[in-house]
Each structure stands twice: as C-alpha cells, then as structure tokens.
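fold-stage: in
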Amino acid sequence: MFLGVLGMVLFLSTVTNRVDKKGRVSVPAGFRTKLSEAGHQSIVCYESLGDHPCIDGCSLERMAQLAESFDEMDPFNEERNAFAAHILGGAKELPIDGDGRIVLPGEFMEFAGIEGEAAFVGLGQTFQIWSPDQFASYRAGARKLARASRGNIPWSGRGQGGGQ
C-alpha cells in the first residue's frame, strides 16, 4: 500500500472506506503507517484541478514543496496567484484522530460527489479521494489512455529490468 524511498513516502493502492454521517472516514492503514513514520499526524486536501471531481491529498511536506514551486513563479503572475489561491487558499489540513479517521469537510464531499463511501487512490507522492462509482468510471478510461501512452514514460532505470 505504501513505500518509503529515500525519505519519500509513496501512496499506493486503492482502498474504499465507509463515510459516516459526520463525514468521518478511515484513512487507509498503510497510508497512516507511513505518514506516522514520516512524522505526520495529518493530511492536506484540496479540490482537484483535474477534469474530474475528486479531492487531491498529500502530506504537509509535499504541500510545502508545492508552495515552493509557486514561489519560483513571478509573484505578480495571475496564473501563479490563481494556483496559490485555489490550492493553498482552498487546502485544509485534516488531523488524523486516534481511530485513524479524518473528517472530510462537507464542501469537499459535495465537490467530489462522495456519499456513504470514499475511495482513496494512491498516486505516488499524492493521492486522491473519489466517489467509488465515479472512480470506477474514470479508471476504465485511464487504463486505455495509460496503455496507449505507456511508451511516453521517461525511464532512467538503467540496469533494472523494464516491463510492459
């Protein structure tokens, strides 16, 4: 579910958990373990900028890296300000409680169409939270695109077996 590589935490796998009426949902155990090992007791989430309604999530450390990338842009650039306003201004740090749960804000659940269950989808250093039905639909198209585009993945793993 989760790997640590050179201090970097990787979110892997897809796990669907129940969301209660208060918006509480368990963060997948593998995610929690590695976050805790890295010293994180929370996750950071914001509405995705992608073409599909879901919630983007990461560690606070990864969010700091994203903020630093905005700092590399011209501070008066409107795109920079739009990214910062949407992502940093719309982000919420969600503490993980003693039972391993977070509370998903209502506006996030509404944006992503989450009702009753939430699918946590590992994407490497980030993850997404989806309505399970919407993710199932998205995944079918994503597989086709990934298969068609697989030759475009940069690979510098010299000496390591590659596969298709």
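fold-stage: in (second)
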Amino acid sequence: MAKEEPGISDAAVTEATGRSWKEWERLLDHLGGEGLSHKELVALVRDQGEVARGWWQQSVAVGYARLRGKRAAGQTAKTGFQIGVQRTVTAPHARVWEWLTSREGIEAWLGASGELVLEPGERYRLDDGSKGEVRVAREGDRLRITWKPPEWDRPSTIQVPAEPKGNDRTVVGFHEEHLPSQEVREARRGHFKEAANRLVAAVTSRA
C-alpha cells in the first residue's frame, strides 16, 4: 500500500487537535505508532490527553496510518512486519528510564541476559546467542538497537522511547520492525506486553 493523503486537511487537524499532521507523525513515530493496530493507535492518541472527541481520535489514527502507508495489520511497505506496545506508567520519568536501562530492564525487553553497553556503535551478544548493535542511545529519550536471533536471516530493529507526561506519568513504547512473519509478530507482541507489565510492577512498587 503506497503512502496516501490523510483525508483531512492540515489546517483542520491542527485546529481540532493542536497538532499538524507532521507533528502527529513525529509524535506517533516516537511512541512506536507504526507497529500498532488501529485500535491501539486510537488509544495512543487518546492517551496524549489533548484530543477529547472520539471522532478526532479515530480520524488522527486513520490519517496517520494512511501517511505511513500501512498494509495489513502490523505490516508496512518499508519496514515489513512490526509491532508496537505502548504503556502510560504512573511513575516519574527518571525512575522509568533508570529501570529501562538497568540490567533487569534490558533483560525484560530484550529477552535474554548478557552484557549490553548502551553506547552508539557498541556490539553485543546475549546468552541465548542473539546479537546486535546499539544504534541510538539518547539519555532520557530513546534507545534503538538491532537484534538478531541465531535462526534469523536478518536482524530486527527495536526502539524504546520514553516521554514524560507531567511530574508523575511516563509514556513508554516498545517498537520492533523488520520481523520475518506475522507469526513472529504475534509472539513479539506477547513478549513486549510482558515487558511492559514487568516495568509497571518494578517502578510503581517503589512509589
């Protein structure tokens, strides 16, 4: 599916939501929106707390999907099968980021133990034989790494963005692209949902 127009003018979406289409693309990309289903995209737009009307939440989700040229569920023209799991956590951003970059947190979202130095260009190999490279590590903002299990022909790319929402809430995303199949996509969805659950349990228990 080729990239399409969003179906609503830039002026209209800006007036109704406070953001232009470019701003919505930038925000939803940052939060892993490309890997989300329509229902998940609507929830993500709603969770930003600035679009109260359900019709506009739906319209932003549909327009974003068109702009991103989404194909079947979880599949796009450029990045193949992908998945995104997003969670709003009731915990300060600094605490959430500390856990995401801790050994416990990395093992939760990456899926295996091993040494991982969060510096761009650093290569790693985990105990299960998977390997990859750190591409982006912006303190307090996002992580982007490649990940390749031994049986895969090519690596996927995992992104973990974290955005503060006020003093006591943080929006965290787990986004993975270049997955080999729909079946793998569903398995990885379960993996990242469990990682999100572990994140919530870890950071809120310290409140």
